[in-house]
Structure formats: C-alpha cells, structure tokens
Specification:
The structure is a homotetramer.
Chain A (H helix, E strand, L loop, with lengths): L1 H14 L6 H8 L3 H7 L3 H25 L6 H18 L3 H11 L3 H20 L9 H23 L2 H29 L1
Helix pairs in contact in A: 1-2, 1-6, 4-5, 4-6, 4-7, 5-9, 7-8, 8-9
Chain B binds a DNA duplex (21 and 21 nucleotides) through helix 2 and helix 3.
DNA sequence: GATGAATGAGTGTTCATTCAT
DNA sequence: GATGAATGAACACTCATTCAT
C-alpha cells in the first residue's frame, strides 16, 4: 500500500510520465496489478492520492510555520516560511519534480487550488497578526507570496536540490520576500 | 504547417493532453496524418517544436526588453521586464497553460534550461549596465529574478489571464522585484 | 448453498450476464468467494447446477402431468401439458429469462437435450396411452410438441410473464396443440 | 469488412461465446485489431451488426412470402411461411445457433422485438387478405404463429439442420400451423 | 470449514507510425 | 507531395481462482 505510493514515485522519477503504467508500478512495488486495483479504483485515483499526500504535507508545513510565528515581525515570518517550505521540498527532493509531471495529467486543478488557498489563508493570518505588520491589502500580499513561493521554488528546482544551492536559494528568496513586505509597509507609511 | 502548430494548441486546449493524438491534430489542421509526418518525424518532435516556438518568443521578449533598457535604473528595468513578460504571456493566454501540460510529456528540460539561461544572461547584462547598479553577485540575482518570473507567473496563471488581475499581478511583481533589487544594492552599501 | 443459487439468479437478473462474477455472487449470498469455491469447483459448475435445477423442475412438471393424464383424451392431455408448463415457467418468472442468458455461456447442450428427451419420452408415453389416441409416428409428434412447447413459450416470454397475457398464451397454445393432434389422428383415419 | 462479419460467425461457431474476442476475430478475418476498430466502434457494435443482418434477412423472407401469398388460402399461406422460414434458416445453418448465443450478450431485445413485430405485421396482413380467411382476432393469431415459428425452429435446431430432418420438421410445423388456423376459422363458424 | 487478499492471464480499446496508392 | 487504411504494441482494467491465515 505504502509500497505502491513509493513505487509510483520511483517509476515516475526513473522512467518518466510516459512509461508510468499500472503494471510497472505494481511490479516495482513487488505486487501484482490486481493488488494495486484492490487499493485504488483506477490509475487516476492513485496519482491523485500521491499528489494529495504531497500537497497536504506542504500546506501543513506552511500552516504550522505561520501558526508558530504569530506575533513575530514580518521579516522573521518571511524567513521562517521560506526556510520551512524549502526544507519540506528538499526532504522529498525526488518526489517533487515527479509530481509536477503528474499534476497536469488529470484534474489536479482543484487539489492545487485548495492547497494554495490553505497556504494563502495561513500566511494572511500570520501577516495580520505580525508585531510590526500593517498592510493595505493583506490578502493580495499573501496571494503574491504564495504564488512566488509555490512557483519560484520548482522553477529553481534542479538548483535547489543540492544542499549548497538550496542555502543560496533560501537566502535570495528570503531577501526578496522580506524586502517586498517591507516595501508594502513603507507603502502604507507613504500613503499616510 | 503553421496550421499544424495551430491545431496542436487547439486540440490541447479543447480536448486535453489525453486526447492529444496525431490523428486529431491532423484532422483539426485540415490535413492527413501522412502529411503531418512529412513535416515532423514524430509526435515528440512536433510537441517539441511547439514548445520551442513559445519559449523562444518569451526569451526574445525578455532579451529585447533588457536590450532596450541598458543604462536605465534597476527600478525601471524591473518594471519593464515584468510588464513585457506578462504581456507576452497574456498575448498567448490560451496557449500557455496548454504548453505547461506538454512540457512534462517529453524531455523539455534542455529546452527550458536554454530559455532560462538566455533570459538570465540578458537580465544579468542589463543589471550590470544599469545606471544605478552595483551588485555583489549579479548572476545569482539574475537567476533569482528569472526563476521568480518564470515560476510565479504560471502559479498566478488563472488569475493573471483576466486583464484586471493581470494588472494587479504586474503591480505586485514589480514591487517585489524592485524592492529585491534595491535591497541587494543597499546590501552592498552596508557591506562597505 | 441455496443462498448461492439464489444469489446467482439475483445477480444475473439485476446486473446482467456481463457483471455476473463469482465475487458478486458470493457477496450477494453473504459469504466469501472462498466458501463459494468450497461448494462448486468453478464458476461453470455453479451455473451448470443452477441450470440443471431449473430444467429438471420443468421436466418433472411435464412428467408428472403426463403421468397424471394417462388414459385421458389427447385434447385433455394437450391442455394439461400447456397449462402445467406455463405455470411452472411463471412461477419462476424472474429466473427464466436469466437462465436463457446462461444457457449459451457454457455447454448446456447436453443438459438441455436430456431435459428435452425426458419431456419427449413422457409426452410420447402419454400419447400412446391416450384413450382416443392412435398416431402413425408418436415419437415424431412428441418431439414436435416438445419443441413447440420449449421454444414458443420463451419466444412469448415478455408477454407471458403478465398473468393476463399468460392466460391468452395458454389458450392459443392449447388450441394449436389440440388441433395439431386431432389433425394427426384424422391423418390416420384418412390413410385407412 | 465482410471478412470481419464472416470471421465473427466462424469464431463464434468454432470457439464459442467465451473465446469470442476481438483479437481472435481480427486474426481469423486476416486483419489486425486496429482495422477491426476502424469499421466498428466497439465489440458490441460488431455483434449487433451481425445480429441485425441475420434478423433483417429473416424478417425480409417472411414479408416477401406473405406479400407473395396475398389472396391465397390460409393453408397455402401456412405452408409457404414455414417453408420459407426454414429455408432461410438452413441457408445460414452455421450462423444461426451462433447468433442465439450472441443475442443475450447485450441488448438485442429491441432488435429482436422489431424483427418479430415486422413478421407479425406481415403475417397479420396476409391472414386478413386470405381468400378463405375470417378470424376473430387476427393480430393475436399472427403473434402466436410468429412466436411458434421463431421459437420452435431454434428449439428444433440441431435436428432441422440436416436436410432429411428439415423436411420432416417442415411437414410437422405445416400441419400444426394449418390445423391451428383451420381450428380458428371453425371457431368463428361455431360461434355463429 | 471459512475467509478475502493476492494473483496474473486475458480483454477491449487506443494511437503513433508506415506505406501502397 | 498527399493520403488514410492498416498495423500491432501497449495500456487500463477485470475476474476466476488459489491459499495462507
């Protein structure tokens, strides 16, 4: 069962999306196709489940980080979120690129949206509760950060996956997010 | 020929990746499968060509924008790049999501990398030549901006595609890039 | 055990021949597949047994009716056989169409032949012992009646299943059989 | 194309319903599966088409015979219909039993009903126009004859298929139908 | 004796690709 | 150069049957 999850990732990573078929997954998992179909009604459902698990983990990570930084400064928050997200990604380094290949295969739109919405909400809440926070449109800012986070990291992917570059990526993203948030605060100040 | 390109995009948009087969593409293009195979050695090559066209256009856009802003301030540059990239994306609004679906299908890694590299180089050159520029690691900054640009926009995709939200996305991204660049400049100042 | 028989009929009636699989039968019968296979060596044997039961019942019905009408006139006999057969069929109205679907699935040829032979023999005996009987080829006539009986009723099937039409079918078949037998008797008379 | 029709019948006859799969049909027809699927959208459609062809031929036969015997006596009509139907069946001796196996596989109900209805209507018209005809309920009688014809012959099937027995079967059925019709006419006379 | 998870051969169907016309 | 019928390998999925518990 978990073996099937694991096998799906492995096959996807090593053989690619085109060679990802139920027989191969089953063989790699050390079971028969029949067994696979006893646990998942069809291929789509399996891929969906794998996606779901990964995305839920990412959203959890961000939520926990945000919850743990209520009352902190926005700079601290930005650093914490970037760090947590990157760590989560790197912990599943092999899975991640594979999943981006699945995502399109069938309608993960809903799934992704829900993950993004959870993260956006968590970040928004954290920004609202920041010790030094004050933003005109907290929701918009949260959306922007989420998009940048979820989008930029995969774009960085091959670089990010090696520890050294991961650290560098974290530094740059943190600087970017921090300066963006500060700019938005200053924006308010300027408006006043 | 261009009809085939066009048809590929259309089929992908309307029927999805799963129903994207050569017969359908040929029919939509108003030619026979045989004809299709006279222009492209195989399906992969066709998809590759379609991808290539789109990515080359994006890289061209960024290069032109960078070339056109040599000597400008980094703030002007940031705004110009964001604006140009978004405009290019929105001009091909229908194509874009379709292509992200293709990208995984076959090894577009190389193709994407080359596009990203072209853009990174162009941005790097522009930053070096900026009237107010001075950065410790211009290349790293250019990489970060490119990743954020190429990654964040698709993540924003469904929002970005409507003109109104497109404008908002542009504003936020511009703010983010500007503040990031300024922060990096200040970083140098602080180091001194 | 009887539950399995019952379940087979039910599944066949409600889900159709294509969805008739051992797992479904077992579940409907409230037992496990394993249990099913402890009573029947394979699916074929199960279907065979179900068929057998039904056909044996039909043959029994005809035999009993024939035995009970030894010495009666051929007209009485004809009426009695038609009535008995129709009653037996209608008593198992739901089963009957289902079984005709099974029949082809596996070699029920032998089974059906044996049933038909039993019925033919019973009818032949009854005709020979009829108070007013005298036929040139009793066996041929018995065969014809059996074929007409076993064949026509299913052909009538959807109509026959409603009581009203059942009565009408009975009337017509009785008339047909009676007049056929009388014609055969008259044939002998004419030959003399 | 006709080769596929032919192959379907052959496979059905020689290998049985259970071994009737598209691959086998294609191979026997001397084409590839792909070709088969270029002419028939799916297996069901193929079987349906084969059924349709056969049933339409039977209904045609009966209609033509009835049309050709307008104004004849009911006795002549009965003999003609039985003869024509048997000839049609025997001409396709191999097909016939095979098709009865298909019939149940999927919803041929409609198809069969339509054939039966066509035949019933033709017989009814012929009875109405018979030179010596006069029946209380022509439709009911036509229905009964159709059911007896369509039902009894297959029940006779293995016997009917050899010429000698075919002749005997024809004699008996003719006697049965003739006497049935005469009995119905007499019924009217008696009522008067 | 009962269970039901595991098996894997077998099925219907699709689709990239070829090649005779 | 254009065509599109033909191909057949490959896939998702089913289900009769087994066997360890």
């Amino acid at each position: 069962m978990d073996a099937i999850f694991e096998a799906t990732i492995q096959v996807l990573s090593s053989d690619g999306l085109l060679r990802l078929n139920t027989t191969r997954i089953a063989r790699r998992a050390g079971v028969s196709v029949g067994t696979l179909y006893q646990y998942f009604p069809n291929k789509q459902a399996l891929l969906f489940a794998v996606m779901d698990q990964h995305l839920a983990m990412l959203a959890d990570t961000i939520e926990k980080t945000c919850d743990g930084n209520l009352g902190a400064t926005v700079e601290t928050l930005a650093a914490a979120v970037v760090k947590a997200y990157l760590q989560a990604k790197m912990a599943q380094a092999e899975i991640s690129p594979a999943l981006y290949r699945i995502a399109s295969e069938l309608d993960a739109r809903e799934l992704i949206d829900s993950t993004v919405r959870r993260s956006t909400r968590a970040i928004e809440t954290a920004l609202s509760g920041a010790s030094d926070g004050r933003f005109v449109d907290t929701n918009l800012i949260a959306q922007t950060l989420t998009a940048a986070l979820y989008g930029t990291v995969p774009a960085f992917c091959h670089k990010v996956l090696s520890p050294a570059d991961g650290t560098e990526a974290e530094r740059q993203l943190t600087i970017m997010f921090r300066s963006y948030l500060v700019a938005q605060q200053r924006g308010i100040a300027e408006i006043r």
